Amino acid sequence: MKVAMFSTKSYDKESFRKHNQNPSIEICFFKAALNINTVDLTKGFDAVCIFVNDEISDEMMARMHRYGVQLIALRCAGFNNVDLEAAKKYDIKVARVPAYSPESIAEHTMALILTLNRKTHKAYNRVREGNFSLRRLMGFNLHKKTVGVVGTGKIGIAFCRILQGFGCRIVASDPYESEELVQMGVQYKSLTEVFEQADIISLHCPLTDSTRHLVNAESMRLMKQGVMLINTSRGGLIKTEEIIESLKSGKIGYLGIDVYEQEENLFFKDLSDSIIQDDLILRLNSFPNGLITSHHAYFTEEAMDEITHTTLKNIESFHLEEKLLNEVT
Ligand code: NAD
Fold it and tell me: What is the tens place of the pLDDT at every residue in 259-296?
């Protein structure tokens, strides 16, 4: 079984080489992302293995089908970047890693909140330069604050458990209530009520047609003045131009994002020597009350191990014609 892995970084290669014990799975590592310009690289492979910013359109799916690709193994949970209708049309199976250490993302979410609030990133730089003043480092207690959690699946639940330890009041919005969270005292509300009541809003729902630009000028009007907004889910949940306006007006008091709408041209790359052409990220980066990390919430040893294991298991199951447990349909 020949597998073409795209968007490969050194840590991916290391992890897949370490864990792939099956001699019948041969992985070819490509640094390039999979897109319309690189799709011809899939010729002769049985499967492709992709990550969050590799995009597979209908046209690419048609070509991959002609080239012999039968499986798309996502090494992530989200699958918004794959045209599933096209996959079905060309009889290409899609499998993903539905859960890998949700705590890794939940903990990073809390790291963003604590850093933005207590300004440890600024304090670190200041103290190293011999500036021991506390000016502009004032934060607020998380204890008794209302946190709005949008999406209480695996990551949302792990995040609520952390919030409970901080003594927060938790309001949540999800079409499906979690019994565990209700038992814990989490109050389910409409999305409007969550936006209206929360001091901190954290997004943990998937990116779909109905959640795209969930945070926009209109929905931000519902939010409290100076609210903290955190997004570790998918960039497309927030309308970037409109969040910039809200940061300028002070409506959004703090913004912490690990994902960004146009991240595919930026994230996971070292562009420190380049002239960055994306004006929106540069504007976002200029706010003193903003904190951007480059899609690294998932990046823990435990999560990497689980991603690698599950992806290899998906490929192996397909190869052995077993039931594909993590198939996306
Ligand atoms: P999950 O499928 O377990 O949970 C998603 C939840 O969102 C479900 O309970 C679902 O009912 C709910 N939901 C769907 N539409 C909604 C809506 N309109 N409003 C409110 N809730 C809604 O997924 P998960 O494992 O918790 O992951 C959540 C998201 O986190 C993924 O879709 C992915 O985009 C993102 N993610 C990010 C990283 C990262 O490194 N930053 C890593 C993994 C996953």
Answer: 999 998 999 999 999 999 999 999 999 999 999 999 99
Q: Do 123 and 146 form a contact (C-beta atoms < 8 A)?
A: no
Which value, to the nearest 10 degrees, does the dihedral of the CA atoms of residues 148, 151, 154, 158 take? 0
Query: CB of 44 within 8 A of CB of 21?
Result: no
Reported as a single tens digit per residue, the pLDDT across 27-48 is 999 999 999 999 999 999 999 9
Contact 298 CB / ligand 1 (< 6 Å): yes
Taking the centre of ligand 1 as the mean of its atom positions, its distance from the CA of residue 51, in whole angstroms, is 16
Best CA proximity match to 104, nearest among 306, 297, 314: 297
- N residues, the chain: 329
Return the closest-CA partner of residue 279 out of 293, 265, 297, 295.
Answer: 265
Residue-wise DSSP of 56-75: B-HHHHHHHHHHT--EEEES
Determine the average pLDDT of the residues in 138-167.
98
- Is the model's pTM score more than 0.90? yes
Would you tell me how many other CB atoms lie within 10 Å of the CB of residue 192? 11
Q: In this structure, which residue's CA is closest to atom 30 in ligand 1?
A: 233
In short, whether 200's Cβ falls inside 6 Å of ligand 1 is no
What are phi and psi for residue 96, nearest 5 degrees?
A: -135, 180
Q: Is 234 a catalytic residue?
A: yes
Let me know if 231 is exposed, middle or buried by CB neighbors in 10 A (0-12, 13-18, 19+): buried
Protein residue whose Cα sits closest to atom 37 of ligand 1: 233
Going through 107-189 in order, the beta strands assigned E by DSSP cover 146-150, 169-173, 187-188
pLDDT in tens, 184-232: 999 999 999 999 999 999 999 999 999 999 999 999 999 999 999 999 9
Residues in Cβ contact with 227 at an 8 Å cutoff, skipping those fewer than 6 apart: 198, 199, 200, 201, 251, 252, 253, 254
